Automatic annotation (TrEMBL):
Key words of the record: ATP-binding, DNA-binding, Nucleotide-binding
Biased composition regions of type Basic residues, renumbered to the chain: 1-16
Gene Ontology MF term list: DNA binding
Protein name as it appears in the record: DNA-binding CsgD family transcriptional regulator/tetratricopeptide (TPR) repeat protein
Species, as recorded: Bradyrhizobium japonicum
Length: 935
């Protein structure tokens, strides 16, 4: 048994309403038909149904129908029920549902198994399991069981599920399409949590119509006087529970003040207390305050409060009054409103004595015992607050960050000094910031009441507020503030915090195209920290504040670190992103691949979404366009799941650029429009700049150079929202080509000169190659060849374009065209042929077509590119095919991509069909022709 097993029911019991199921389902034929449809179509894949409605409207009765129908069809039926008193116990409801499957945990991928066992308190783990690893382990268990027979997972009262369980359910609900699993979730109308995606079916229950309401009332309370009958019909408003319970709880017909229906129902339940013996009332109060269902705990706590022996027979009156049910060794309320009614009926002193008694009788579950000790405590208790600090540590070790925040907030309440209280609330706020919950963070900070003299605490608050904000807003004042906070942290000896603050300030400089003066202040402040030269943040700060001017120095440092493999994915991400910022994508792609591999293994999907975008951008530049689209698709999917709005936009821009370069202009613009709406909503100039580059290169491919010029000139127009100095050189080659081809050579020359001066004396190779490309376009016809030869590495010490296949192929195309126009057609054919082959390998069909046209004009014809099998695969299918070809099993692929193994199997079936093969052994030959364009 786990440490919580004694407090959770061995299997989910039906939470019956006060009305018999046949009556509470009055008028629900259409709703039942929907449930039948989901169960009957299980062969077509899984689905999620969210049922919502007010308390007592019949949600639980419909869940009973789902259980019954599924059992009849041979489903495995699992379930969980949220209970308000248990909401502080992380993964409690999940453990309730999964207990019948836990023998299968031995077959899980080791990291998933460890994460799940640690989450359930069945294994101590030094590292905190990420919630997504627990979620993937849960999906794997469910999917494995569903291979034997279909599975129904029911979650009732989802508004009271612990946060960790709810997040797992949300993860699962988005991944059921290929598994024979039906998830049915019931929640109250006023619950703000979101669950599922666009494919999720939603059913909001309304009240019964007049005829059904009258039938239900007359069946449960026959012979009511007409006046009283009309009053109950009006007050119930078609709510089945109200139609059954109001007549039982309010027998007097006199006028009463108006109350909301929920309050009236609670009063109807509490009115029954007056007819019960004192001991029965106390037992109900104990049951309401207990966060478990153990009959033994309830009786023992009641004995401690009363000071006398209490037997199970003392609960009989409460059972007869239809307030509770006893199932073996467990006690449950017949409806959650009964619990809340009992809680409100007990006076504070009684509740305090009950919690003290429960703390005394709970021996083997330390966290539960501490919760009750705190509830029984009035005023500060530093010893108990210290115990809560340890509880928060245990929660973090199990990946339950939300619980740790709640625990620290309780510890703050128990603190005897303002300093201890503020420190604990600040720790909780830092966790809330990391969790991406700015509203919760601000509420905690408001309570902290930090002494203005505590400079380091004020800096920590500033850091919380900074990291809780999306990384996009153009706000120079925030950069100055970060510099000031870094100085205070430095003065307090918190060098690491100061480094983080300045690294963030540098990022803001790049995001918002900050002035040279601001950038210099950030750089100077960073040098004063005297960090080691190899500190990733210091290297990154240099790159982000002056990517051109300091690019060569950063390039050398990155080259020196390129052979290392940082074990910390954050360090690898910083180094990889830094490489991207200065244009050394060949170095960046390796660091980012290392980072994404570790983040994937750790289940840190929010960070993974961000890294996959950067990795995809680097892969695009080094010529792995299929890998880039694969990363972009997954980045967008994970960012959407984890709420990373800037990275949804960024990944979508990458998709727009790839689609445009491949000639899919309609799809490219659809992606661009989606990304533009997101970027504008968060005021992200750097995203708008990237978007204009994507639109510009797509227009060049289509031969619309004037349109491309209009898109790209926005990067160089200070008043334009897309203006961004740090990203201008990313579009240099495109801008010069578009400008020259549209009759705007003067503007192209001005921009090229500015970038060449800024990157002097030694630009990084990618920038140097683009400079040669631009000079070749701008040069007089007789002078252009030297720039072509230098850029292609065929003459002089200039940078070669070999590492940048798309840029090299464009160089070759332009050079071949120049040679043909110089009446050197025989010489033009070799570069044009090479350009055509490179464009074909990339899938850059607009440029392939242009290379073929130039070849025809030079006297040589060539066959059109033949579509390859892998061209028909989606990015996710291609990814799965590549992993399968490497020998990974479906389970291993699922673990890598955070999918169920059945979903992987479904995709492989589609891949085999498209490729015309029948087994995994046929994948290698199909994929063998996929290669990155050669150096």
């Amino acid at each position: 048994m786990t440490r919580r097993a004694k407090k959770i029911a061995s299997s989910p019991k039906r939470r019956s309403g006060a009305a018999p199921a046949s009556l509470s389902l009055q008028g629900r034929a259409q709703d039942i038909a929907l449930i039948d449809h989901l169960i009957e179509r299980i062969d077509q894949g899984g689905s999620t149904l969210v049922i919502s409605g007010e308390p007592g409207i019949g949600k639980s009765a419909l869940l009973d129908v789902a259980r019954h129908r599924a059992s009849e069809r041979g489903f495995t039926v699992l379930g969980m029920t949220g209970v308000l008193a248990e909401v502080h116990l992380p993964f409690a409801a999940l453990e309730q549902a999964l207990r019948p499957l836990m023998k299968g945990a031995e077959g899980l991928v080791p990291r998933q198994r460890s994460a799940l066992l640690a989450a359930f308190g069945m294994q101590d783990d030094t590292g905190a399991p990420d919630i997504f690893l627990v979620a993937l382990a849960t999906l794997s268990l469910l999917s494995e069981r569903a291979t034997r027979k279909p599975l129904l997972l029911v979650a009732d009262d989802a508004q009271w599920l612990d946060q960790a369980t709810y997040e797992v359910l949300a993860f699962i609900s988005r991944r059921l399409s290929s598994d024979p699993i039906v998830l049915v979730v019931a929640m109250r109308d006023d619950f703000k949590g979101s669950l599922g995606d666009a494919s999720t079916q939603r059913l909001r229950l309304s009240g019964l119509d007049a005829a059904d309401a009258e039938h239900l009332l007359d069946a449960n309370a026959p012979g009511l006087p007409a006046e009283l009958r009309n009053r109950f019909l009006k007050e119930a408003s078609g709510n089945p529970l109200a139609l059954v319970e109001l007549p039982r709880g309010e027998r007097a017909a006199g006028d009463t003040p108006w109350l909301p229906l929920t309050d009236r129902l609670e009063r109807a339940f509490s009115n029954r207390l007056s007819d019960l013996p004192t001991i029965a009332r106390l037992l109900l109060f104990v049951t309401a305050e207990n966060d478990g269902t153990s009959l033994h705990e309830i009786l023992s706590a009641a004995e401690a409060v009363l000071g006398e022996r209490v037997g199970i027979d003392a609960m009989a009156p409460a059972v007869a009054a239809k307030l509770i049910e006893i199932n073996g060794t467990e006690v449950r309320f017949r409806h959650p409103l009964v619990r809340s009614a009992m809680h409100q009926a007990a006076d504070p002193a009684t509740r305090q004595r009950i919690h003290a008694a429960l703390a005394a009788v709970i021996h083997d579950q330390l966290d539960r015992q501490l919760w009750h000790r705190a509830a029984a405590t009035i005023g500060p208790d530093d010893e108990l607050a210290g115990e809560y600090d340890l509880m928060a540590t245990r929660a973090l070790r199990r990946g339950a960050v939300a619980m740790a925040i709640e625990v620290l907030e309780s510890a703050a309440r128990l603190s005897s000094t303002a300093k201890a209280r503020g420190d604990r609330l600040l720790r909780a706020a830092e966790l809330a910031a990391d969790l991406g919950q700015p509203e919760l963070m601000e509420r905690l900070l408001r309570q902290a009441d930090i002494d203005e003299a505590n400079q380091l605490a004020l800096v920590r608050i500033a850091w919380c507020r900074e990291i809780s904000q999306p990384p996009a807003a153009n706000h120079p004042a925030k950069i100055l503030a970060l510099i000031g906070f870094a100085a205070k942290a430095h003065a307090a000896g918190a060098i690491d915090l100061a480094g983080n603050l300045l690294w963030r300030a540098a990022q803001r400089c790049w995001w918002s195209s900050a002035s040279d003066e601001l950038c210099k202040k950030v750089y100077d402040a960073a040098t004063r920290l005297e960090l080691p030269d190899t500190d990733p943040r210091l290297i990154a700060i240099s790159a982000y504040v002056e990517p051109l001017r300091r690019g060569a120095d950063v390039y050398l440092k990155l080259q020196g670190l390129a052979g290392t493999a940082p074990s910390d994915p954050t360090i690898a991400r910083i180094l990889g992103s830094t490489a991207n910022v200065i244009g050394t994508f060949d170095i960046g792609v390796n660091f980012l691949a290392e980072s994404s591999a570790v983040l994937r293994m750790q289940g840190r999907l929010s960070d993974l979404a961000r890294v996959l975008f950067a990795q995809g951008w680097a892969e695009m530049e080094v010529g792995d366009w299929r890998g880039a689209m694969r990363e972009a698709e997954e980045s967008a999917r994970l960012a959407e799941e984890t709420g990373g709005l800037p990275w949804i936009a960024a990944a979508t821009i990458l998709k727009a650029r790839l689609a445009g370069m491949q000639g899919n202009l309609e799809q490219s613009e659809a992606y661009a429009a989606q990304a533009e709406a997101l970027a504008l909503s968060i005021g992200a100039s750097f995203l708008l700049a990237m978007l204009q580059i994507a639109r510009g290169v797509s227009a060049i491919g289509a031969g619309r150079h004037w349109e491309a010029f209009e898109h790209l000139r926005r990067l160089f127009t200070p008043a334009d929202p897309a203006f961004n100095f740090g990203l201008q050189f990313f579009g240099l080659a495109d801008f010069v080509e578009a400008a020259v081809s549209s009759g705007n050579a003067d503007e192209a020359s001005r921009v090229l000169d500015e970038i060449e001066r800024a990157s002097a004396p030694t630009p990084v190779p990618w920038v140097g190659t683009m400079l040669q490309y631009g000079k070749a376009f701008l040069a007089a016809p007789d002078d252009a060849e030297q720039f072509f030869l230098q850029g292609l590495g065929l003459q002089g010490p200039g940078p070669a374009a070999k590492k940048w296949p798309f840029l090299r192929a464009r160089f070759l195309l332009a050079y071949g065209g120049w040679l043909r126009r110089q009446r050197r057609s025989a010489n033009a054919r070799a570069p044009l042929r090479e350009a055509r082959d490179m464009f074909d390998a990339l899938g850059a069909s607009p440029w392939s077509d242009r290379a073929r046209e130039e070849l025809r004009a030079s006297g040589e014809t060539s066959r059109r590119r033949t579509e390859q099998v892998w061209d028909t695969l989606t990015p996710q299918e291609l990814h799965i095919a590549q992993l399968a070809a490497e020998g990974l099993s479906n389970k291993e692929i699922g673990a890598r991509l955070y999918l169920s193994h059945r979903t992987v199997g479904y995709h492989l079936h589609r891949i085999f069909s498209k490729a015309g093969i029948t087994s995994r052994s046929g994948l290698r030959p199909v994929l063998a022709s996929i290669s990155r364009p050669a150096d």
